[in-house]
Amino acid sequence: MKIGRLDAGHVDRVTALESEVFSGRDPWPRTAFDAELRNPNAVWFVAVEGDAVVGYGGGWCVTPEFHLLNLAVHPDFRRRGLARELLEAVFSEGVRRNCGTVVLEVRHDNADAVRLYERLGFVRISSRARYYSAGEDALVYMRYP
User: How many domains does the chain have?
Assistant: First the structure.
């Protein structure tokens, strides 16, 4: 498995994985990932196994904060430390760009993600009512350098 930067050659496979992982939960369209490739503040990494994209994650570095926007791992590759590896790559690049403080939103009912973020040192700082388009609440987490 290789972890590297997201590029245009990955976008179709990332979009397909996004649709699978977030089916019925506001998956990002291809145009969103295309826009991220043009955004100078964006930091995105992918995990590739053979020809398949099996995970990705990224967000924006706006000094001094990094805002994690999206993270996904194919169901067959979960519980292997891949999400952690992707986040380490993303956050390392954020630190390199002077964005050591990280903020993120996570669906209130995404227990696996909440456990991961808390294990990585994130602290819940607030919530956002009806943050997602289906009316779901978000929990807001932050990690300080």
Answer: 1
